[in-house]
Design brief:
The structure holds two protein chains of two kinds.
Chain A lengths: L1 H12 L20 E4 L4 E3 L8 E5 L5 H8 L2 H11 L3 E6 L11 H11 L5 E4 L4 H6 L3 E2 L2 E4 L5 E5 L18 H10 L14 E2 L3
Parallel strand pairs in A: 3-4, 4-5
Antiparallel strand pairs in A: 1-2, 1-5, 3-7, 6-9, 7-8
Chain B lengths: L1 H17 L5 E4 L2 E7 L10 E9 L4 E8 L6 E5 L5 E2 L8 E5 L2 E7 L1 E9 L8 E13 L3 E13 L12 H8 L8 E6 L4 E6 L8 E6 L12 E5 L2 E6 L11 E10 L2 E13 L18 H29 L1
Parallel strand pairs in B: 12-18
Antiparallel strand pairs in B: 1-2, 2-3, 3-9, 4-8, 5-10, 6-9, 7-8, 10-11, 12-13, 13-16, 14-17, 15-16, 17-18
Classes of the chains: A alpha+beta, B alpha+beta.
């Protein structure tokens, strides 16, 4: 009984501790990583040197992700830019038992259901890659240039909402960063505050 | 007899408390309602209203800058001709910690006050105030919520019939950050963003936290520093990794944990470029004072312990006899 009381007191009064987190800094080299994809194959970021790489953090249960896929916007971005040679990596960092967690089969099913077209769907259930990038939300988007430098970190667009009707009038930051960089211009909006559900680490 | 009178009085009190309140809507884990300051609209006199969100235990909604994740609520008014809505005001938020991410918002209950200007004359004998409210409610998962709230109020021209604020709105206004004449000064540099302040003399700050309006300025998940140096107090924030370096103003809400609870003030001051030193860090989350529910839980626990031990004592006694 006494031990239980101490435990209760401990749970009531001891404040939770946050983990120190890294972040991906625009203008610096994007953190390297290796993850398994939905087929169980190892994927190394460094193997895509020489190409543009988009990292898209996802959680199929999150309404902000639902807005982008339900409107068809995410799929059309994936198709448009992979056709231009961009490598699109969709990453799920939901921990096992939390919202959005998928295994390889679940990821493939989710991609098929949505007619999504990422180059690879990567599984990060331990959240180590998500934390090394400072991925906070779903979606949270990163764009890496062919030299391996991070050129965009932030929100998918400038209309923070879960409303599909906002997609057509929103300015898409990922498309803008890719278009500007491919045209040899400086990326005008290279960092924004991402919006969405928290990544379910 | 006495009991009956007491009951009737209680009933009356309840009726009075509920009377000027309004139409509500329940959606998921949050119940939204529109409350007004009076039981009528008087032409030419501003109408104080409030959007009230009541959340189920564990759920929260967000402040205007939600922090690491989330989305602030939005309000879209539909008002009769000649009515002009003022801005929806944001009570001081609190912070939530979730797997190393820090967000800003409200739990249990929040009321966002707004003042609506009314025209000098009104043709009908009643008006309908409507608000479409959208919000994001989160616990371990997030769900969008939405409600269309309506409040029908009679038009009264006799000013003496105009009722003053309900307690709900008074309480809500009391939770808004105060605009003060305090000395406030902000500096930004590579190591820290620093806000120096001299609070009202009666406040004895034990800690402080700054909620920035601007996105992508401070690192929400980093503990903020706090110290006293001479006549100033100072709160320091770690700059966000990809912070916008060209900001020339610091705006937001400074919450001071002092004697007599917390005190919140509006901040909107020039942001000077320098190299302020980070102050000693404070815990990321405020020290937890047990809530009323926790006290109830503790009392319940004590009651169980007593209930279990009393018969044992009793048994022991009978045994001795």
């Amino acid at each position: 009984m006494k031990r239980m009381a101490w435990l209760a007191l401990f749970l009531l009064f001891v404040a939770p501790v946050s983990l120190a987190r890294a972040a991906a800094i625009v203008g610096q080299r994007a953190p390297s990583f290796e993850l398994r994809d939905a087929d169980g194959k190892a994927v190394k970021l460094d193997s895509y040197r020489g190409k543009y790489v988009v990292l898209e953090w996802t959680n199929f249960g999150c309404p902000f992700v639902g807005k982008q896929y339900g409107s068809g916007n995410m799929q059309s971005l994936q198709k448009k830019y992979t056709e231009k040679g961009v490598v699109w990596l969709t990453i799920c960092s939901s921990a096992k038992g939390k919202q959005g967690y998928v295994d390889g089969a679940g990821a493939k099913e989710g991609v098929k259901e949505r007619d999504a077209a990422p180059t690879r769907f990567l599984l990060d259930p331990k959240g180590s890659v998500g934390k090394s990038y400072g991925a906070k939300t779903t979606p949270h988007m990163f764009v890496i240039d062919p030299k391996g430098t991070l050129i965009y970190n932030g929100a998918i667009d400038d209309k923070p909402s879960t409303n599909k009707d906002d997609v057509p009038t929103a300015k898409n930051y990922v498309a803008a960063a890719l278009d500007e960089s491919m045209a040899g211009e400086k990326v005008a909006m290279s960092a924004t505050q991402p919006y969405g559900c928290s990544v379910k680490y | 007899m006495l009991g009956k009178t007491y009951g009737a009085a209680m009933g009356l009190a309840l009726l009075v408390a509920l009377w000027p309140s309004a139409a509500g809507a329940k959606a998921g884990n949050v119940e939204a309602s529109l409350v007004a300051s009076g039981d009528a609209v008087v032409p030419g006199i501003p109408l104080d209203v409030g959007i009230r969100l009541r959340m189920k235990r564990g759920w929260h909604v967000y402040w205007k800058n939600p922090g690491d994740s989330g989305l602030p609520p939005t309000v879209l008014w539909t008002l009769p001709e000649g009515f002009r809505p003022g801005p929806v005001e944001w009570p001081a938020p609190r912070r939530f910690l979730d797997e190393g991410l820090v967000t800003y918002g409200y739990h249990d209950e929040v009321v966002f006050p707004a003042r609506i200007q009314t025209p000098g004359s009104l043709p009908g004998d009643s008006v309908t105030i409507a608000a479409r409210v959208d919000w994001l409610e989160c616990k371990d998962i997030c769900v969008p919520g939405s409600a269309t709230l309506q409040l029908r109020l009679p038009v009264r021209v006799e000013r003496r019939l105009y009722r003053t604020s309900t307690r709900t709105l008074e309480r809500a206004r009391a939770q808004l950050p105060e605009s003060t004449g305090w000395f406030l000064q902000a500096e930004t540099g590579p190591r820290a963003i620093s806000l120096s302040f001299i609070p009202a003399r009666h406040l004895k700050p034990r800690g402080a936290y700054f909620y920035a309006d601007e996105p992508l300025l401070v690192d929400y998940a980093a503990p903020q520093g706090f110290e006293r140096s001479g006549q100033f107090w100072r709160v320091t924030m770690k700059p966000a990794p990809n912070a916008d370096r060209n900001l020339d103003r610091l705006s937001g809400v400074l919450v001071i944990d002092g004697n007599g609870g917390s005190h919140s003030v509006h901040v909107d001051v020039p942001l000077r470029t320098a190299d302020p030193e980070p102050a000693p860090p404070q815990p990321l989350m405020p020290p937890r004072t047990p809530s009323a529910a926790a006290y109830v839980a503790i009392l319940a626990g004590l009651a169980i312990v007593l209930a279990l031990s009393v018969p044992r004592i009793f048994r022991r006694r009978t045994h001795h006899n």
